Amino acid sequence: MPILVPDATKYPPTDGTPLPADDFRAIFRDSATPSQAFNIINGLDQDNIDPAWTIGRDYVQRGAQVGGAAAAGTVNLDYIWQWFADYDSANGWTPYPDFDADPLMAVARPIPGGNRTFRLRYDAEVKIAWQVMWTNDNDGSNNKASQVVFCLDGAPIQMRKVGRTIVGGAHDGYAKSRWWTGHQTASLDKGYHTAGLWLAADPDIKQTRVWARCLNVKWYKN
Amino acid sequence: MSWDREPLEDGDTLDAATWTAQVDAGIAAVNAVDEPSCQHRTFGDAQAGPPIGPIPNDYGVGYSLFGNHDTHEYAGANATWGANLIAYNSATSFGGGDGTGVQNTSDRVVVGSANAGGPYVANGGLLCQRLWDPGFKVGMGHGDFVGEVEISVDIEVVDWFADQGLSDFIMFCLQFQLNGTDWYTIDRTERLESMSDKRSTTEDIDYTCSIRTRLIDDDVDAHGDSGVDLVTGVRAMVAIVDGQALDILTLGQWYLTTIPKHTSITVT
Questions:
Q1: Which of A59, A94, A122, A150 to mutate to test the interface with B (most CBs of B within 10 A)?
Q2: Rounded to an integer, what distance in angstroms lies between the CA atom of residue A127 and that of residue A222?
C-alpha cells in the first residue's frame, strides 16, 4: 500500500554529485513504481494515517462506514382467505429452521410497510430488525395458523405462526394481537438487496389483519 | 505529522542537505497523516476501515446465535428461582433493578437452561449466551478497540400461565461475564411481564420479549475495572417471580446478536 519510500539509488542526493533530471523527477512522479514518488498523494489510504491518531467521527464522511434504511406502516391490512385457497398451514407448522418453505412461499404475500430494498455501497455486515402485529378470526383449531415470514433476498429465513388469536372464541371473544419483534444478521455483498415480511394464512381462517409493522436495516462496512 | 513547510528565501543556501530536509518532511507528512492535516469529513470508506471487526481474536465472527426449543416449559415451582426475587414480590416493584448488587444472581436461569425445571420438547440444551475466549476489554482506550458491544435478543414467549394472576410475573434480562467467572445483570435490561392471556388455557399468547442495549465501559466499571477486566460473555436470563406450583412459562425461539464495535477509528 502507498507508503512513500523513494528509490534509495536516487534519493537522497549528495553534495557534489550531479542529480540527473530523471532522478530528480522520480522523487515526484514515477509511474513504474508509484510508491516511490509523491504522486501517491492522490491515492492515500489507511496505511498513510498516523498510528497515533484515533480518528473521531467528525473526520469520516457520512455513510462511509454505516448506513440504514427503514419502512413502516400502521394502516390496517386485511388478508382474506381466497388468496391462500390452496395452502394448508399444517405443512409449515415446524418453526425455523425446519419449516417447509415451498408451499408457504407459493402463496405468501409481501406486507406493505414491512419490506425494503436497499443498496450497499460496499460489502457489509447487515442487521435487520422488525416488528409486526397481527390477528385473525380463526374460531376453530388452534393449529390453523396465520404465518409471517421474514425473507432476505427472496429466501425465507425466519417464520412465526400463530393459531387462534381471539380469546373466548370468535364473535363473542376479544381479539388478542400477536406481535413478533425479530432481527437477523447477514454478511452481504455490495449492491441491491431486499428484506421484508410476508404473510400467509390457512384458508380456514377467513381473514388475517396486520395493523402495525416496521422494518429497519442497519449496515456496517465490512 | 503535518507538513510545516519552510520555503527557501533569496540568499538561502540550497544544497543536498537543505533540499533533502524539505523532501523528507513531505515524505513524513504523507506517511503519517494526522488530525491537523485533514478537514472534517475527509475520510471515506476507502480510508476509514470497518466500524466492526476484525476484532482481535475474531470476537466478531458470527454475530448471531439462534435457538429453537420449539416449546420449552419453565416450571414456576422450580427451586432455582422460587421466591428469591424478593425485591419484586410486591405490587409496587414492577420494573427497575432488583437492587441486590446483581452479582452472580442465582434467582434466574439462562434462557434454554435445563435447570428451568420444565420439559424440553425439542432442541433442548442450547443456551442463549455468547462466550468469548479470552475475551476483550470494553472501552476504546483500553487496547482492544471495542468501544461498545451492541446486544440484541428476541425471545418468543409462546405462553405464560400465571397461577395467581397478576401477582405472578416473569422477568427477562441480560447479563455479562467478566474474566470467565462472575456474571452481572445489566439492570436497565430487565423486562417484566404479568399475566397476558387472562389464564386462558386454549390460546397461546405468542409475543416477543425484545431487549436492545449497548454494553459500555461504564457497565464494566460498575463491577470491576474496564481497563483491566475482560468481557468474556453475554447471556439472556429468565425468571418466574413469586413462582407457584402451577405457573408455566413456555418459550420457543430466541435470537441473540452481539456486535463488538469501534466507537472511534484507529489504524493500528
A1: A59
A2: 12
Which regions of chain B does DSSP assign to beta strands (E)?
64-75, 109-110, 117-120, 129-136, 148-161, 169-178, 182-185, 191-193, 207-215, 231-241, 248-261
Interface test with B, best of A1, A15, A46, A138 (most B CBs within 10 A): A46
Cα end-to-end distance, chain B, whole Å: 16
CA distance B62 to B58: 9
d(CA A159, CA A149): 4
CA separation for the pair B100, A60 (Å, rounded): 43
The reported pTM is 0.82
Alpha-carbon separation of residue A176 from A111, A135, A137, A161, A182 (angstroms)? 20, 7, 10, 14, 19
User: Are residues A148 and A199 in contact, defined by beta-carbon separation less than 8 angstroms?
Assistant: yes
What are the start-end ranges of the H helices in B114-265?
Answer: 217-221
The tens digit of pLDDT for each residue in B103-150 reads: 445 677 888 887 677 776 655 568 899 888 888 999 988 888 888 999
| ipTM entry | 0.81
Residues A193-213 have pLDDT tens digits of: 999 999 988 888 888 999 889
- The residue of chain B with its CA nearest to that of A143 is B203
Distance from chain centroid for Cα A3: 35
Strands B191-193 and B169-178: antiparallel
Residue A89: which of A99, A78, A98 has the closest Cα? A99
